[in-house]
């Protein structure tokens, strides 16, 4: 993952390394979202900066739409983000 916001915003598409880091984390942690919250927050921060910089029409391949992003950030701040996520065990057949 890029070490700075500036680096993350310069990638094509913007914020891609942060989105990929989430996928890697989820895969390594058996898709337990609660183990990847810092990376999710980092992506949301990147996306928020992208919208501030480029406006609502920004290249958002790796980001939720601006309205949804703001809702997700508010939910996480209210404690309803990943803490509300449930991990379901599946049975192998």
TrEMBL record:
Keyword Mitochondrion: yes
Disulfide bond annotation, renumbered to this chain: 15-46, 25-36, 47-63
Family per record: Belongs to the CMC4 family.
Region (Disordered): 74-93
Protein name in the entry: Cx9C motif-containing protein 4, mitochondrial
Keyword set, alphabetical order: Disulfide bond, Mitochondrion
Localization (cell): Mitochondrion intermembrane space
GO CC annotation: mitochondrial intermembrane space
Protein's UniProt keywords contain Disulfide bond: yes
Superkingdom assignment: Eukaryota
């Amino acid at each position: 993952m890029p070490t700075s916001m500036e680096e993350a915003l310069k990638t094509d598409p913007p914020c891609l390394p942060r989105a990929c880091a989430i996928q890697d984390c989820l895969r390594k942690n058996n898709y337990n979202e609660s183990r990847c919250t810092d990376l999710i927050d980092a992506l949301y921060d990147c996306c928020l900066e992208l919208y501030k910089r480029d406006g609502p029409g920004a290249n958002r391949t790796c980001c939720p739409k601006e309205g949804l992003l703001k809702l997700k950030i508010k939910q996480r701040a209210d404690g309803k983000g990943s803490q509300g996520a449930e991990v379901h065990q599946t049975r192998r057949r």
